[in-house]
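Input for the complex:
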Amino acid sequence: MTTRLLLLGAGRSASSLLQYLLRHAPTEKWFLTVADVSPAHLAPVLAAHSEYARAVPFSTDDEALLEEMVEQADIVISMLPAPLHPLVARACVRHGRHLATASYVSPEIRALHDDATAAGVTLLMECGLDPGLDHMSAMRAIEHIRARGGVITSFKSYCGGLLAPAAEENNPWKYKFTWNPRNVVLAGQSTAKYLENGHLRFIPYQQLFARTERLAVPGYGEFEGYANRDSLSYRAPYGLAHIPTILRGTLRRPGYCAAWHALVRLGLTDDSVNLDNPETMTWAELVAAYLPVPPLPGLDLPTRLATYLGLEPESEEMGRLNWLGLFSNRPVGHARATPAQLLERLLSEKWQLQPHDHDLIVMQHLFEFELGGTTHRLTSSLAVVGDDATHTGMAKTVGLPLGMAVRRLARGEMGQRGVLIPVGADLYEPILNELAVEYGIRFTEEER
Amino acid sequence: MTTRLLLLGAGRSASSLLQYLLRHAPTEKWFLTVADVSPAHLAPVLAAHSEYARAVPFSTDDEALLEEMVEQADIVISMLPAPLHPLVARACVRHGRHLATASYVSPEIRALHDDATAAGVTLLMECGLDPGLDHMSAMRAIEHIRARGGVITSFKSYCGGLLAPAAEENNPWKYKFTWNPRNVVLAGQSTAKYLENGHLRFIPYQQLFARTERLAVPGYGEFEGYANRDSLSYRAPYGLAHIPTILRGTLRRPGYCAAWHALVRLGLTDDSVNLDNPETMTWAELVAAYLPVPPLPGLDLPTRLATYLGLEPESEEMGRLNWLGLFSNRPVGHARATPAQLLERLLSEKWQLQPHDHDLIVMQHLFEFELGGTTHRLTSSLAVVGDDATHTGMAKTVGLPLGMAVRRLARGEMGQRGVLIPVGADLYEPILNELAVEYGIRFTEEER
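Predicted:
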């Protein structure tokens, strides 16, 4: 019997997911409907697969069509923006269809748990990279440690979407956008909270990018990590209620955070104020508008900024700011904008991924545990380089775990109903094995 | 013929307004209905005025009663929280009743302008202290300068709700709450924008309390002012579209801002994160949770904080923080709160106005204008000390201008309809004169 799959949203980040679904459709007896706002780009991809795949145009405001498509599917896979997922999930519960996404469980999704369970529906969330592969790989390591009798005292986990070395060249930030630029600009705009040696720890936004931790991934060099907003919420799903130290963070190449810290301190990441600026205001004028009126006339802008921020004029941080064009006479190009909007506009050009660039996904878990009277340290690391501009590391690590989870669902190998995330071995073991064997996406472990 | 006045909300801040309305009700032929959520406290006040005043219980969620009361009034005066004013204003427009408030014109109120005009209704907003008396006094000064042929090149205007000297004793902040504590804790949490010598100027929140200006009010000593969020929006209503320098700010006693800046930098004014803290966490533990782990063990908390913030351990700033009890073993007393909520809780006790305390309202406008080839400087200052704990400076300066505006409206001396603020001489001249002659609330001017 054919299983009907409905994929909602097939933009660039869904490329590897789509490839995976098409690869397995004939043998798994799937019929795949791909619903996308502009399905024209899918024609060449689907041409060779017309027996078991078709594309349909779908605008997310067409709720009637959504309802109809969900009703006609067995499993719905959504790559739509996360705010649309409650709408999709409610339709799935109404029609008794399973749902799989790579988005966080929101309070609205969580509220559907009982209804979904009663309807015999699985709402499988957080099944991409981060969230997704982070849960799977962390839980496998945690279970291995527990099986040996170890007691985990510290868990730190970092992830970042970065660049393969060649794409980092001629870019002192060693960073380009491989994900939503707005999210990168607004990252961390709240107090970060985590646990250290049993004590709650807080880092306000203004200090976040100044308090980083260095780490190394074998074969890929050095990185620095800054703390994510809420590390505490991971204790319950991971079964680590009493762990003394837990921290989750985001990875960048060394130096990025100190320079970003300068942008934060200057005020350029604020998204709460309309600056009433003209479109013709230059970047140099914008930066100057943030500086106190100089006591000594005649100092140039970079020198004034360096003095204001307590940086050396020739420092790497100042070099990165200059590379962005902050001291240039180029217009900001957008009237009556927030500083964050102007910065995003500038960065979208400076940090644009080029067709020949390869991205790099890095994830590292660092555990400390007590076993046999001694403290053990286990590091589990993953690095995934993108194949090309279509099958990026991001597309692969988000899409493949999601596709593999759908395969388990379609085979009836997942009995749990209601709202789930992939923290159970029945789901993560086959997925982690398939990622390693079929795609070479494997974590390397070091223990000492 | 009797004019029916409806006063919505008669809490403590309405004391002077109510006294003013009762004083003039017999001679002006008003009948006053005071609608309040708990009108019991009004009985002794209204007892001697029962011929022309009554109190009725009114809960703001009783929209039917609101509708009925508005219909039965000629003029509605609202001291309700500002978010309720669109509801009240729409009822006024429906029934053809005038409205007077001390709250800002919100976008929702502004949208009622055409309907109000068509209905022959005046929605008089911003008629208290700030906004209110600031508009009136600034516009009078601006018109005087213009009448002399002066061209205004700079306008800075500051206001603050502070303490009379005796109430400042034994309090290094020289500040207590005379207004909404939450607003004080969250003050300035956005980028401030103003104009200086024709250039846009921005101050991010993290620098706001470090970039203050000193000023003096004759007879009342020194103050420091920090910039308000949006000074640019005052250009249009004041007819100062092309002014090179305009700044509005808030006044504190010298030293307050530097110490508040330390709280901001530490992260204690953030209202965007739930700290997941237990109720029993102590203030010392909370502060320690924000500090990096010390490189040297054994340093005490105040020394660690001073080092972190770059302050001298014996500095005035550290003295103010210590006076608040930030290094004490006292519990924060509120589980799972934001830092701002915890700080407000602490300050509400430390900065509580005592029954014998007198408050002090200070306002100062600083003008520069070109006249006869030279630059003139005009300073216009106001200081109002509260009579007692009921008729505070705040209650007087908010309530009296509002009451006087209502008196003009009731007499038919205001012909303008639609949404208005008191920037016209027909309104501000009689009010400023009455404030000076009847209450001694007068601005003193100095020109050089």
